Every structure is written in structure tokens, then in C-alpha cells.
Hints:
Strand content: 25-35%
Strand order of the largest sheet: 2-1-3-4-10-9-8-6
CATH superfamily: Class I glutamine amidotransferase (GATase) domain
Radius of gyration: 16 Å
Largest sheet: 8 strands, mixed
Shape: globular
Amino acid sequence: MNVHSFEHVPFEGLAGIDPWLKNRGHSVSRTRFWLNDPTPDMDNLDWLIVMGGPMGVHDEKIHPWLRHEKRFIEQAIKREKHVLGICLGAQLIADVLGARVSTGKEPEIGWFPVSLTANAIRSRWFHSSPFVPFHWHRDSFALPHGAIHLAISKGCENQAFSYGDRVLALQFHPDSTAESIDHLLLNCADDLVPGTYVQSAEEIRNMQTQFQPNLEGILHSVLEAFRTEVVAQ
């Protein structure tokens, strides 16, 4: 299976997704937009994984490559590729599906519980609720027409949605590892302003040992659901 990732900054890569893919023998390639890497041949693509980044979906004047990225995501969905978006990636999926993406009431940064909707509990994507994933975002998305609302937190009403059988958008970070969190704390430290749903760097690191093992299980469950659907075709 050919998996391609869209990456927007050097410090937000596939993180915990990468070893899962490689351990199962999948081919992994990537487009690093900050280096103007090319996008892949759509015909050779099975999965597209769209990762996070500090920019917003509307920052096309600052990052002109966003226009091309959106067109590619839109075409991947139309051609029924498997598309997974995380944080900014989820917002980009929502945007190309016609939903509003805007600045939320409050930023959400740290370890905060997420609860599943009734639709999510009946879906193949998740198996337990609530769980405590890692968050790092200020913007959030509305639900696209035809999407299924899957998850909610106190700080963000729309934490996840699915669209059809092959598109999944996650506002939270199930991919987080100790290394990826350290990269965010180093490169985005200015985001840690006092707020109801903003933890300090010390709180984030202290809570990581409590919630990281469960988070890996959530990630693997989601990825297995994608893989199982592919095999079942």
C-alpha cells in the first residue's frame, strides 16, 4: 500500500504514525511544502495523510502552496482515496468540503478529554469514550454537509468527523509522541498563553506519562480501521 503524507513544517511529521506504517511494510512518501516538494501521482496513491502546522487554512497569501494542497485533497476525496487529516489537516479537509474554518473561542493546548458521539460509538473508528488525547490548536472547523460528527471536548465542539467511508478528520493529535510534543513546545512556545484550556509546558510533560500509552492505542485503532477497509475492498 502506498501512503503519502502532506507536511507543512519541519517539526510536525508523521510522529507515531510512521512506525505503524513501516512495521506493516507500507510504502511511505511525503511532500514537504516548506521545501516545495512535488505532490504525488494520484493514480499511485492509496492513503493521503494530511498533518498539522501553525498556519491557518486561509493563509494562502503567506503560503501560496495551500491552494495546490487544497485542490489535491479535494481531488483525492472525489477519487475515493483514503484521506486522514490531523489538526490543520482536519481543517483543510473541512475547508475543501465547504465547511467554515475559523478561530475558536479559546485555544486548546495540552491533555484534555474527548467524548464520543453516539454515531462514533456505532462506527468502526473508535472503541472507548472518553479518552484523553493531546491537543494544540486555536482554529476549529464546522461540520461539512453530509459528515458524521464523531467527537467533542469542552474546549472544542467539533473534534472529529468522518465523511463517507474513506475520509476521517481529527482535530486532536492521536499521533503525538514524546519527541513530537517536545518539538511543539520548542517551536510554538509563544502559543502557551494563560487560558481555560491551555496547559503549561510543565503540565504537558507531567501528564504525558499518564496518557501517552492509551493515546497510542487510540491511534492504532484508527489506523487499523483504515487498513481493514482497504483490505476488504
